[in-house]
Amino acid sequence: MTQNAELQDLYQELILDHARSPRNFGRLNNPTHAAEGINPLCGDKLKLYLTIDSDQRVNEICFEGSGCAISMASASLLTETVSSLSVTEAEAVIKSVTTRLTHGSAVIQNEKLYALDGVRKYPMRVKCATLAWHALRAALGNHHTPATTE
Amino acid sequence: MNRAQQSSDFGSAVARCRKDFPALGQKVNGHTLTYLDSAASAQQPSAVIDSVARYQREDHANVHRGVHTLSARATEAYEAARDKLCNFINAASRSEIVLTSGTTESVNLVAQSFCRPRIGPGDQILITHLEHHSNIVPWQIVCEQTGAELVVAPIDDAGQVELEPMFELMTQSVRLLSLGHVSNALGTINPLRQIIDQAQKREIPVLVDGAQGVPHMVVDVQQLGCDFYAFSGHKMCGPTGTGVLYGRESLLDEMPPYQGGGDMILEVSFDGTVYNDLPYKFEAGTPNISGVIGHGAAVDYLQALGMQNIQDHEMALHAYMVSELVKVDGIRLIGTAEKQASVQSFMLDDIHPHDLGTILDQQGVAIRTGHHCAMPLMQRLGLPGTARASLGLYNNRGDIDRLTAALEKTRQIFG
């Protein structure tokens, strides 16, 4: 594959679109769960807010923060994916996404997330893509310390 | 043709030195390597690489210990490097050259051995808003240990220390001023002579973080008048894990050791220990012998080219880089000090520096992106980080042209 094609694989239109216009961007006033994600290498920083209702389902989710196109797009796609899933389902998605980004082969329920595959060729950037997912894991676990990529 | 043009790409030995650096001959991601990250770590010439290899093949033994031939050879080469480093910054005596693992250790040594025993609540350490984390955190630690306070001199929007406010902060409570020679993130060259003059009037000792100074200009610690000067080998074409703390002999003499161990003692008994003379009092344990020898070889290499020639070449190339960068649509230069070393930070449109770094790397262009270990400075500038191109003696106009071409391509991808 030519480099141009490889780069376009990383920065495909779906990624750039989500980076430019992140979905569910903002904060919730009364979240039941929240967590911060920090990537000290890049300075990517985001905060996830969720409300989880009594039957353990994600009712609302949004995020705010700043970072590179990969981290912002990944967070945006995360909110789309996880919205209305049960906590158990969300945990399964976290596992399949992080496995796919770091080891390469897991199947993911939301096909849009395959747009993040390009990052696997750029080991320095994998953490940008996984940041939001680490934060989600922390939020669901009600961890009060910030999730980091380290 | 003016002098600057002449020394940038034509004529001078500096302009021809690129071939001495084997790493620069390679292709990266199918493109000629364009290495613009010397402020993070400079490439090494064959002379340095060979000196380290020769020591390891032929002369390796511990220093200052054995009576056998290899130990004598190792000691001789190690101590010869100290002499070269002493001469390189024009220290008054080799006793003033403490060999460390790098600038960071040098700064920590001053924090713990100079400051910690003599400061307490009510005292202050003064730094500037430009500093690298290695010139912030050691002071935060010693302040926490002693109850002293860390005070930060402000900078203007161009990235220059505001001198009058800084002089006002130089009160009787200030027990040390520590500042960079050159900002690693923005390239600002601090007016050290002027600042040190003011500090001396108030009898405030001064530590200069010279990590980004020594690779790019003639440094004369006696002429500067600083009390301490810290720098690293790997920023000046030497190996990693080596560095120097220059300290005024009278101050080093008063300071307790930084670490205990072998080599830093004259006599040890369980009743007490007599410390070694300077500079060995501060060099506990087996040092980075091969690295120090390589650092000495780097001094030989740079001095043969001439630090003034290197500075002229880099300044002319920096001016060319700035003139070409501003032609790229969407470029915003960050750090526009009147006096700048061969470092330039910038932003391109609203593209995050890390996306920029990845796309440039795919075109063989190595730059640094991020906060440059200067998070408080980035906060002051209101930026998550910047892209930074930093030049070394081996760069040329072709490197700059490849940088700007790669930036144009980035704009296409991000549309």
Radius of gyration of chain B: 22 Å
List the domain count of chain A as a whole number: 1
Strand content of chain B: 15-25%
What is the name of the CATH class of the largest domain in chain B?
A: Alpha Beta
Q: Name the strands of the widest sheet of chain B in spatial order.
A: 4-10-9-8-7-5-6
List SSEs of chain A in N-to-C order: HHEEEHHHE
Overall 3D shape of chain A: globular
Please report the first level of CATH classification, the CATH class of chain A.
Alpha Beta
Using DSSP, what is the number of strands of chain A? 4
How many structural domains can be distinguished in the coordinates of chain B? 2
Number of helices of chain A: 5
Biggest sheet statistics of chain A? 4 strands, mixed
Task: Please give the alpha-carbon distance between the first and last residues of chain B.
Answer: 39 Å
Number of strands of chain B: 17
* Helicity level of chain A: 40-55%
> Radius of gyration of chain A, rounded?
14 Å
- Share of helical residues of chain B: 25-40%
Which strand order spans the largest sheet of chain A, edge to edge or round the barrel? 3-2-1-4
Describe the structure.
The complex is a heterodimer of chains A (150) and B (415). Chain A has 150 residues and is α+β, with helices and mostly antiparallel strands. Chain A contains 5 helices and 4 strands; from the N terminus they run ααβββαααβ. Chain A has helices spanning 3-10, 13-20, 69-82, 87-103, 126-140, and strands at 33-39, 44-52, 58-66, 147-148. In chain A, strands 3-2-1-4 form a 4-stranded mixed beta sheet, covered by helices on one side. In chain A, a hairpin with a 4-residue loop joins β1 and β2 (44-52). With 415 residues, chain B is an alpha/beta fold. Chain B folds into 2 domains: 3-32 and 306-414, Alpha-Beta Complex (Aspartate Aminotransferase, domain 1); 49-303, Type I PLP-dependent aspartate aminotransferase-like (Major domain) (Aspartate Aminotransferase, domain 2). Chain B has helices spanning 3-9, 46-59, 69-88, 103-115, 137-146, 163-169, 192-201, 221-224, 249-254, 289-305, 307-325, 353-361, 375-381, 397-414, and strands at 27-28, 31-32, 34-35, 97-100, 124-128, 149-153, 174-180, 206-209, 228-232, 243-247, 265-269, 272-275, 331-334, 343-348, 365-366, 368-370, 386-390. In chain B, the strands form 5 sheets. A 7-stranded mixed beta sheet of chain B has the order 4-10-9-8-7-5-6, with helices on both faces. A 4-stranded antiparallel beta sheet of chain B has the order 13-14-17-16, with helices on one face. In chain B, α1 crosses α11 (307-325), α4 (103-115) runs parallel beside α5 and α11 packs parallel to α14. The two termini of chain B are 39 Å apart. Residues 3-11 of chain B have low confidence and may be disordered. The A-B interface holds A 3, 6-8, 10-11, 16, 41-45, 66-70, 122, 124-125, 128 and B 29-30, 351-355, 358-359, 362-363, 369-371, 375, 378, 384-385, 413-415.
